[in-house]
Write a structure and sequence with these properties.
11 strands, about 400 residues, TIM Barrel, alpha/beta
């Protein structure tokens, strides 16, 4: 049975004993058919290759910074693999104010084009972050993640609502998927089932919770770092606190995300005493050693929406059709340009072409020729931490080391 200490189940929360029993049974059923993660020399080579790319980029970025340039080479790239989603979350959009389920998916890259995209980006990018829509709805996701592994991406990350994972893992074509993943981030914004059903536009939120427990059962043997991303929203502070407490008891990493309205934090949060108390609790728990993503410096800046040095080219956003949204998908004052990644052989030539269209240096700001946004997403604060680390290498080493720490439950 699950043992709870910080978390206390409340009315409307799930029957954890039932969900846990189902997750354990699923794990036992699936385990014999699943591939084992790669280990030994081949895995060491993959990680070493990724670290080499990251180190090369760091030296290049130090030089670019000395030259006063901000077209920094990537730390990772975010790929919206498809727009389709089986959720309709009240707070979620495509960074342009449009809901994913309402968007056309015509032009999505096929498997061959997807692998070609990975090849181009790998020339300068050590890590890939699969996103959507809902990326687990892609039938060819296992083939794509295997290609990413064989191209020596590390870590390979996915952000998912988690609802379809059990169904997909039953398919023979998915037997390799967990073995090829490094970090799985599951979105979970509370534990009250009725509120989650309404917030997500999904009638069976217990699917997500069962699959989270399933992944927890398999995480250690599959060498996966399991994380939960929680969007903190006005009127739902207690819900976010419940998830913070649950992840502490389950040994799962917790990623707090203050909700944005457009590209800016919901300002009412910063005036809400309950939010302030939660933010202080998160920082205190971080000091106590709870598995909370991000350094204390980064978390403080994120939770209090402090001004940041945004370096968006560190996390280029590739859209479903293989276009780089340059220099930022969420820009307000200046529309982003779409650059076809598959028209280039490497990231350097891709960035040179994109830079000729819109200069990214000092693009972040309020002026009419700047982005006009002040995004309060953890991804943006990760670029702020990297910019900080270009001047203070030891601080960046600490940030990266913590992110790569697995400590699977």
């Amino acid at each position: 049975m699950l043992q709870f200490d910080s978390y206390q189940p409340r009315d409307g929360h799930p029957n954890w004993d039932k969900l846990h029993a189902e997750a354990v049974a699923l794990a036992e059923q699936l385990r014999p058919a699943l591939d084992r993660p790669r280990r030994g020399i081949a895995e060491t080579k993959r990680r070493a290759s990724s670290y080499t790319t990251a180190a090369h980029n760091y030296l290049t970025n130090r030089r670019l910074q000395r030259e006063g340039r901000e077209d920094l080479r990537p730390l990772y790239f975010i790929w919206t693999m498809l727009r389709s989603c089986n959720f309709d979350c009240s707070y979620c959009d495509d960074h342009r104010g449009r809901k994913y389920p309402d968007l056309c998916n015509d032009g999505v890259l096929d498997t061959k084009e997807s692998v070609r995209l990975l090849e181009v980006m790998r020339t300068r990018t050590p890590s890939v972050y699969f996103a959507g829509g809902e990326p687990t709805l892609r039938k060819d996701l296992p083939a794509i993640t295997r290609a990413a592994r064989d191209l020596d991406y590390y870590p390979i990350i996915i952000n998912t609502n988690g609802s379809a994972i059990d169904r997909q893992l039953r398919k023979p074509s998915w037997r390799s998927w967990l073995a090829d993943m490094d970090i799985i981030i599951v979105s979970l914004d509370g534990l009250n089932l009725k509120r989650l059903a309404s917030m997500w536009g999904y009638r069976k939120p217990e699917d997500v919770l069962r699959n989270l427990l399933l992944l927890r059962e398999l995480a250690a043997e599959m060498n996966i770092k399991l994380m939960v991303n929680t969007v903190i929203q006005p009127g739902h502070i207690d819900d976010a606190r419940d998830v913070l407490n649950l992840t502490r008891d389950l040994g799962i990493w917790f990623c707090p995300t203050p909700v944005n309205v457009g590209p800016t934090i919901e300002r009412s949060l910063l005036a809400d005493p309950e939010y302030i108390a939660l933010a202080e609790l998160i920082l205190e728990r971080k000091k106590q050693g709870q598995r909370i993503s991000g350094s204390a410096r980064m978390l403080k800046r994120l939770l209090w929406a402090e001004p940041l040095e945004c370096r968006n080219t560190l996390k280029p956003h590739i859209d479903f059709d293989g276009t780089l949204q340059w220099p930022c998908k969420a820009t307000v004052n200046v529309p982003p340009v779409a650059v076809d990644v598959l028209a280039f052989d490497d990231v350097d030539s891709l960035y040179d072409n994109a830079r000729s269209r819109i200069e990214p240096t000092r693009f972040h700001g309020p002026a009419c020729n700047q982005c006009g946004a002040n995004c309060n997403w953890a991804q943006n604060y990760s670029t702020d931490a990297y910019a900080h680390g270009l001047k203070r290498p030891l601080s960046l080493l600490g940030e990266v080391s913590e992110f790569l720490t697995r400590s699977a439950p």
